[in-house]
Amino acid sequence: MAWVESLQKAIEYMEDHLLDNITIENIAKQANSSAFHFQRTFSILTDMSVGEYIRRRRLTLAAEELTRTNEKIIDIAHKYGYDTPEAFSKAFRRQHGITPTEARRNIGKLKSYNRLVIQVSLKGAEPMQYKIVEKENFQVVGVKEEFSCNNGENFVGIPKMWEEVHEKGTVDLLSKVNNGQLKGILGVCVDKGASESGQSIDYWIAAASEGDVPEGFQSLNIPASKWVIFEVHGPMPDAIQNVWKQILSEWFPSSGYKHAGTPDLEVYPDGDPSSPDYYSEIWIPIK
């Protein structure tokens, strides 16, 4: 359970530094993870981004101080990272549904987000169908966009990217050049690491293709890897999101494997993605 312990260590670090200007890179280091993989794991397991967790916890603690101390509202606002009373009041109202002044007067209800404790239950879990294979490097061709991981921007941008490539007919073109061993349209995540603007990824919508790169597309080499391949059965996007949650909360903690840090893939074969019988796969490089 070292993986779970590392994740909990990162959460403890966030809690110990809630009043500080902490970075996602420093948080992820506590879990021996890259910022991208930590953020994705955290958001899948908790259904919120790291930034959202910190914001909710700060506003929870701020509400407690408002109700049990006589500290000035402006001082509490500054303490929890807000430059102006107006910004604090807006964020406070969005979470609690009342203003800081109303909270101080005990008017209305407050919403408390408690400190996270990671618990993984393996007993009685739904079975997972997977296999482990080793594969030589191969080429994919497609289109890519760079997304910031700050405040979960990638989780908003990637679905929009899929909508656009469907509308433009890019997916149909990729299907025609899909002559590699891996059949289907691919979603490929490439961790670019930290930069001056923060953590970012390249996200590709692509197909395995041998030979020359068709006009209008770019190419990416997927390195030789040991892969764990999980079966996904059911309509998108719920089915694949549920399997990701199982992978991160059940399989990795008990398997002894770690993510290898190279690109991982979601494989979408031909078919109706909204069908309850739709089959897809998640490919994760492991070590």
UniProtKB/TrEMBL annotation:
Alphabetical list of InterPro entries matching this protein: AraC_E-bd, GyrI-like, Homeodomain-like_sf, HTH_AraC, HTH_AraC-typ_CS, MarA-like, Reg_factor_effector_dom_sf, Tscrpt_reg_AraC-type_HTH
An example molecular function term from Gene Ontology annotations: sequence-specific DNA binding
Taxonomy, superkingdom: Bacteria
PROSITE patterns recorded: HTH_ARAC_FAMILY_1, HTH_ARAC_FAMILY_2
Keyword entries, A-Z: DNA-binding, Transcription, Transcription regulation
Domain HTH araC/xylS-type residue range list: 8-106
Entries under PANTHER family matching the protein: RIGHT ORIGIN-BINDING PROTEIN (PTHR47504)
Protein name: AraC family transcriptional regulator
Source organism (scientific name): Lederbergia citrea
Organism taxonomic ancestry: Bacteria, Bacillati, Bacillota, Bacilli, Bacillales
